[in-house]
Amino acid sequence: MTTLSTIPVPLPELTAPSVWPASAVTARGGDVSVGGVPLAELAERYGTPVYVLDEAEVRARAAAWRRALPDADVVYAAKAFLCRAMVDWMEQEGVGLDVCSAGELELAASRGFPADRIVLHGNAKSPRDLRTALRLGVGRIVIDSECEIARLAAHVPGPEAQQVMVRVLPGIAAGGHHKISTGAEGQKFGLSIAGGDAEDAVARILGQPRLELVGLHMHLGSQIASAEPYARGVRRVVAFMARIRDRYGVTLPELDAGGGFAVAQLPGEPAPSPAAYGRRINDALVRACAEFDLPLPRLTVEPGRSIVATAGVALYRVLAVKRTGGRVFAAVDGGMSDNPRPALYGARYTVRMVGRPSAAPMRATTVVGRHCEAGDVLAESVELPEDLRPGDVLAVPASGAYQVSMASGYNLTGRPPVVAVAGGRSRLLVRRETFEDHRGRDVGL
Ligand SMILES: Cc1ncc(COP(=O)(O)O)c(C=O)c1O
Ligand SMILES: N[C@@H](CCCC[NH3+])C(=O)O
After folding, report:
1. Which positions carry N6-(pyridoxal phosphate)lysine (predicted)?
2. β-strand partners of 191
3. Using an 8 Å Cβ cutoff, are 142 and 120 in contact?
4. Is the Cβ atom of 18 under 6 angstroms away from ligand 2?
5. Is pLDDT of 397 > 50?
6. How far, in Å, CA of 217 to CA of 202, rounded?
């Protein structure tokens, strides 16, 4: 018999913008299901901690970006999270890849991802990064310092020139935290427009027959919850393009506006849709080009978090509940080794108990990890039932970006597996890191 509690309903938090994938609904026995699979069942089957990725949500977000900017290239920033399945999904959705290491590049290549749809970034590209990029024939290499120009040119096999862009610093502060704000003067990325470094680099590249300068790139930062900084940045970059045309007689055909588009980390937080970002960026580009009498360059955007964050849910099991100093702590079997974001940026998350019903009143509980640091806090003062006990499963939505990709080997707990859900089925994408993996690397005595 179907009772009210077994009819799946959208989660109360599922107001736009949501922190959950669109497929998240309540399930039997106090559970939540994602992609048609109950989360507690996934915790049981794959163990905890485990990261669940809703394939349909990833694909839908990628498709939303393509619809938002149909005349632009959408390039997924692989640093947010990459595995072979992600490479395939991006390929199938018609999205390119932004990589920043030979490792990310090799992974994409291992799936036959078209190299001409790959952009290589990095403020310190290693010889291996550059060699791999040239060998595989990546579409664009983004120059981030003057000294890499001659180094790169010397290795281009020819006869064709390597297409490059210059990452310029538009001098705009934006981003959810100072550690992920990259568009202002005085940090390690890019070449300053105002300070003249960008123009010096352009002149140098134009003098290198093995390099073809196709455009300019900016990346303002990450978790930028408004489209306005992009509009200002685009205008500054277009103004600089006009200066290049006037001084060097070269009209650059491409402009890459970078990534950094915000998602809601907590229910109701502001996060413009891809369509809203796209409209504003396009509008700024059209206006600036009219103002400076330039033809419209081909636009690229590089969303990372915006494609994958809300598709991911982290599952942990409670190991201990402790009341101390007037606070309640729930300690789980993961922590800063799988999610360093709260410790690094003060990132906040919402947490929900799944897998059993509870009629107990809610109380403020701080969810902490198992690592040897007082700062190993996953979520400060979140509402959880008073009867929360060891063995319960906690779900943390909006966990798809920069968690697994930044996971560490701290305390040799082993990095968690990643499981895809789609159409009521689950499959393992990345297995759990085991003690054998650690021991295998430990080769000296
Ligand atoms: C060059 C570049 N492009 C794109 C991104 C993607 O950023 P986000 O995941 O915030 O969209 C980053 C990371 O911030 C980046 O450094
Ligand atoms: N790792 C950061 C974002 C940095 C993006 C990379 N350029 C975060 O978790 O928010």
Report:
1. 79
2. 168
3. yes
4. no
5. yes
6. 12
Instruction: Please check if 427 is assigned to a binding site.
Output: no
- Residue count of the chain, please give it: 445
Domains and CATH numbers, the chain: 4-54+310-440 (2.40.37.10), 55-307 (3.20.20.10)
Ligand 2 touching residue 167 (CB < 6 A): no
Please give all residues whose beta carbon lies within 6 A of any atom in ligand 1, as ranges.
77, 79-80, 98, 121, 219, 222, 258-261, 302-306
pLDDT in tens, 30-75: 999 999 999 999 999 999 999 999 999 999 999 999 999 999 999 9
CA–CA distance from 358 to each of 3, 31, 202 (Å)? 17, 11, 63
- Is beta strand 211-217 parallel, antiparallel or unpaired with respect to 254-256? parallel
* Tokens representing residue 112 in the block: 């036959």
CB of 413 within 6 A of ligand 2: the answer is: no
Between the CA of 222 and the centroid of ligand 2 the distance, in Å, is 6
Copy the structure tokens of residue 345.
Answer: 């940026």
Q: For the CA atoms of the chain, what is the radius of gyration?
A: 23
Type of residue numbered 188: K
**Protein residue with least CA distance to atom 1, ligand 2:** 402
* Neighbour tally for 192: CB within 10 Å: 16
Q: How far apart are CA 219 and CA 174, in angstroms?
A: 10
Distance CA 346, CA 331 (A): 18
- Rounded Cα distance between 359 and 357, Å, is 7
Cβ neighbors of 416 (< 8 A, separation 6 or more) are 48, 49, 50, 51, 314, 334, 338, 404, 407, 432, 433
103 annotated to a ligand binding site: no
**Ligand 2 centre and the CA of 83: distance in Å?**
17
pLDDT tens-digit map of 82-99: 999 999 999 999 999 999
Tell me the longest C-alpha to C-alpha distance in the chain: 77
386 is in an annotated binding site: no
Residue 420: strand, helix, or coil = strand
CA distance 100 to 117: 14
According to DSSP, the β-strands at 298-301 and 73-77 are parallel
Please give the pLDDT value at position 187: 87
Note if 372 is an active site residue: yes
* Complex ipTM value: 0.98
- Choosing from 181, 302, 305, 399 the residue with most ligand 2 atoms within 8 A of its CB, the one to mutate for a pocket test is 305
Strand locations in 274-324, DSSP E?
298-301, 312-324
